[in-house]
Amino acid sequence: xxxxxxxxxxxxVGSKYTLVTLASKRARQLREDNDMQVEKPFSxxxxxxxxxxxxxxxxxxxTPAVK
Length: 67
Fold this sequence. Notes:
mainly alpha, 3 helices, about 55% helix, transferase, nucleotidyltransferase, EC 2.7.7.6
């Protein structure tokens, strides 16, 4: 079983497209800065670490308002 669950991540973020964008941008930041918000992550890869931050609410984001 994968951790974190993709279904739980999509429920938290609202859209699989938003999830991919958010995780990839955070993975790039982690690669450059190595500024982890989660202690002892399960994953050694940056994308996995960013997903762990999203599921644990350590990565704040806001959905832009539609005009």
